[in-house]
Amino acid sequence: MAAEALVVKLGGSLGGAEPALAEVAGYAGAVVLVHGGGPQIGAHLERLGFSTRFEAGERVTPPEQLEAVEMVLTRLGKWLAHALSERGRAAVAVSGRDAGFLRARAEARLGRVGRIERVDASLLFALLEQGYTPVVSPIAVDHEGALNVNADLAAAAVAGAIGWPVVFFTDVPGVLADPSDESSRYPVLARAEAEALMARGTIAGGMVPKVAAAFLALEAGAPWAAIARGEPGVLAGVAAGQAGTRLVLEPV
C-alpha cells in the first residue's frame, strides 16, 4: 500500500533539525513541508535594532519589520529545500507570493500579520506532479503586499485546502499528561478532552497553538492531524496511529 501523502510542519529551531529533515527526505509518500522561523527572525531583528513583541504567542510585525521577516523566512525556505534536495528528495521553496497561492486578511492589531482566507493549491499540485516537494514559507499576500503568517496556522490552512493529514513536528513525542514523563503521551485526543486539558494547564506553552492549529486543520478539511517528534520512522508511525498524538474532532 502506498504511503499516505502528508503536510508536515517543521519549526524554526533548526539546530536539531537533522533528524526531522532526514525523516522527511526518506518518507515514501508525497509531502508538503511548511516551516517556521521564529528564532532566526528574532535574532535578525535584534541585529537590526528592532524590538520584538508578541501577543497571544504571535509576533507583532510592524510594516518596517516585514521586509526583514520575509527575507529570513525566504532564506530558510531555500536552505530547507536545498537540504532536502541534497538528501535525495528534490524540493522547491515557495511562499504565498508565488502565484498568490496564499491569500490573507491583515490583523490590524498585529501589524502586517495575516489570517489565511484562501489557498490556491494548484501551484503545490503542479510541483508535486513534477516530482518536487514544495517547501512553503508562511508569507501570504493581500491587496497591499506581503503578510507574516503563523507557521502552524499556515500548515493547517494548506492541509485543509488540499485535504491531506498534517503532522506538526515538535521536540516531544506528542501531547503529554506529564511533561516530565514521555511515556505519558496521549495516543488520541478529541477536541473536548483537549480543551479540558488546556483549561487545566496540562496542555500549556508552545503546545497550545499546535493543538489549536490541528483542530483548525480538521475543521478546514484535513482527514486527521497529529503532533509528534521529528525522528526516524515517525511519519510512518504517525500514519499508522502508532506514534505521536492524533487529534480528532469527536471521540473515536
What does it look like?
The protein has helices spanning 18-26, 38-47, 63-86, 122-129, 151-162, 191-200, 207-220, 234-239, and strands at 6-10, 31-35, 54-55, 58-59, 91-95, 102-106, 114-119, 133-137, 139-142, 145-148, 166-170, 188-190, 225-229, 245-248. It is an alpha/beta fold. It has one domain (6-248): Carbamate kinase. The strands form four sheets. Strands 5-8-2-1-11-13-14-12 form an eight-stranded mixed beta sheet, sandwiched between helices. Helix 1 crosses helix 3 and helix 5 runs parallel beside helix 7. The two termini are 24 Å apart. The mean pLDDT is 92.
Task: Note the topology.
Layout: E1 6-10, H1 18-26, E2 31-35, H2 38-47, E3 54-55, E4 58-59, H3 63-86, E5 91-95, E6 102-106, E7 114-119, H4 122-129, E8 133-137, E9 139-142, E10 145-148, H5 151-162, E11 166-170, E12 188-190, H6 191-200, H7 207-220, E13 225-229, H8 234-239, E14 245-248
Parallel strand pairs: 1-2, 1-11, 2-8, 5-8, 11-13, 12-14
Antiparallel strand pairs: 3-4, 6-7, 9-10, 13-14
Helix pairs in contact: 1-3, 2-3, 5-7
Q: What is the H level of CATH, i.e. the homologous superfamily? A: Acetylglutamate kinase-like
The ordered H/E elements are: EHEHEEHEEEHEEEHEEHHEHE
Low-confidence stretches: none
Q: For the record, give the distance between the C-alpha atoms at the N and C termini, rounded to a whole number.
A: 24 Å
Amount of helix: 25-40%
Total DSSP helices:
8
List how many beta strands DSSP finds: 14
Assign an overall shape: globular
Would you tell me the overall average pLDDT?
A: 92
- Give the helix/strand class: alpha/beta
CATH class: Alpha Beta
Question: Per CATH, what is the topology?
Answer: Carbamate kinase
Cross-sheet strand order for the largest sheet: 5-8-2-1-11-13-14-12
CATH architecture group name:
3-Layer(aba) Sandwich
What is the makeup of the main sheet?
Answer: 8 strands, mixed
Portion of residues in beta strands equals 15-25%
What's the number of domains? 1
